[in-house]
Amino acid sequence: MQQQKVRVRFAPSPTGGLHLGGVRTVLFNYLFAKQHNGDFVLRIEDTDQTRYVPGAEEYIMECLKWCGLNADESPLVGGPYAPYRQSERKPIYREYAEQLVKAGYAYYAFDTPEELEEMRTRLKTEENPSPQYNHAARAQMKNSISLSEAETAALLKNGTRHVIRIKMPDNEEVSFTDLIRGHVQFNTSTVDDKVLLKADGMPTYHLAVVVDDYLMKITHAFRGEEWLPSAPVHLLLWKYLGWEADMPQWAHLPLILKPDGNGKLSKRDGDRLGFPVYAMNWTDPKTGDLTKGFRENGFLPEAFVNMLAMLGWNDGSGQEIFSMDELIARFSLDRVSKSGAKFDYEKAKWFNHQYLLNADNNKLATLFEPVLKEKGITAAPEYVATIAGLVKDRCDFVNDIWNHGFFFFQAPETWDVTAVKPKWNADKTQFFMDWASVLETLSDFSLASVEESFKTLATSMNIKVGELQLPFRIMLTGGKFGPPVFNIAETLGKHETIQRIMNGLKAINA
RNA sequence: GCCGCGUUGGUCAAUCGGCUAAGACGCCUCCCUUUCACGGAGGAAUGACGGGUUCGACUCCCGUACGCGGUACCA
């Protein structure tokens, strides 16, 4: 094969929320394309009109945008191979299907859904629980192979509903080299005569993926492992259509499994175990049911993407935190693992934590703003940024800033006095009274001067510094939590700190 | 049932025939800190099984078991 521009595609069907496995497929596509200065195409696989969900397409694009995985060509931005929505390409597929029929690689089938159902129940046995429409069965069914030419022509002429099926050869070996799995081989007699063109004139995935990958000059095709069993159908189609030389290289990605037990991770597992599975919140327009997304759960897109990249890939060095640019530079298919990976939400949180730790405080303040707004609190951005910087090392999510720093925005109304009462005495009350007066006179209310005055006074009054710190903390925050006390005091400022000492004193001595 | 793919600690995983089997998450202990974290130092915990091939197998081959995927006019 000669040098040609790398072109990859992600082809979701707009039927609902975007699963994290889908995002990972996009990511691998994207990384591969960018690494090779290639194109990343977004194609909408909307050939099943019964499953079409309005809004899903826009939602998917919004997810990709959030992740920073924008397509070079898509229904939204267009491109040289438009249209990118398969429903809008409908006439194209029939042409190729008919071409296959003429060449003897496919045939018309007139069986009704009821007749297919009948065939399946009739042929169903203990050893063969799912009978196929294959080389053996097709002779007994109503199609252009079992019927005479005249009968077929007549049926076609009076507009009998029909599909076009691929005629799988009887006993041929089909093999290819998967970029991840290596040599993979199938015998054609184990695969059925897949429908290529449905009765409504729409192609099935099998036909559409081949035709569009060809027409859109796709060079590398990445998809989930669940597609591996139908690969021989696609391989044969490339051959029968005469495009074998242009067939993309396949890479079947390992599945993302549920954390407990086995099997593919599904939306239901997330609901059941309390973590998101979709990239963003998704509301089913029919039922109104809301499924939570990573974005709304407080994940930073960079962390989400990084986490997904490590689910099935690593560069062998042990490094786990990668920027998008590093991922693009280092990604390689031969380091993608073959086996599925169980999703670990704890590890996902750790990734987010890492990104939170390294995030700019002003950025965190901006992201936290909506939370404050929701609580009816207004605060200066710089103030919020300072707080974010103070508490972020104990947060997994942006929203946690509230849990670890709420007292910066509202003075305590209750105090954990039981934590100080046992060791409390009049000297300590005196200390805080005196210290409050000292603070009043401080011209520089900085961390260093506040702390120094605290320690100086404690020493002169002969009280252990350590025994005063917890009470002070509780005066400022109401409980045993928060960043270092003097940092809290400095951030709160002179007035508020003194105020809280007085209120706290009252509560403790009450 | 049949076909395909897979199988290293609880989880993600390195190892491409030399292993005293990395690292990370989580868990536990200790230090730091009279909050909680962060940080630091330790710890417990792994090659499904049986045959080959080989001087030597976690690594290669075969079989078995187990798991997963597929077996739709869904993708």
TrEMBL record:
Keywords linked to the UniProt accession: Aminoacyl-tRNA synthetase, ATP-binding, Cytoplasm, Ligase, Nucleotide-binding, Protein biosynthesis
NCBIfam families documented for this protein: gltX_bact (TIGR00464)
Residues the entry annotates as binding ATP: K267
Family annotation (InterPro entries): aa-tRNA-synth_I_cd-bd, aa-tRNA-synth_I_codon-bd_sub2, aa-tRNA-synth_I_CS, aa_tRNA-synth_I_cd-bd_sf, Glu-tRNA-ligase_bac/mito, Glu/Gln-tRNA-synth, Glu/Gln-tRNA-synth_Ib_cat-dom, GluQ/Sye
Presence of keyword Secreted: no
Organism: Chitinophaga silvisoli
Residues in Aminoacyl-tRNA synthetase class I anticodon-binding domain copies: 364-504
Database matches in PROSITE patterns: AA_TRNA_LIGASE_I
Designated name of the protein: Glutamate--tRNA ligase
SUPFAM superfamilies: An anticodon-binding domain of class I aminoacyl-tRNA synthetases, Nucleotidylyl transferase
Residues in Glutamyl/glutaminyl-tRNA synthetase class Ib catalytic domain copies: 5-350
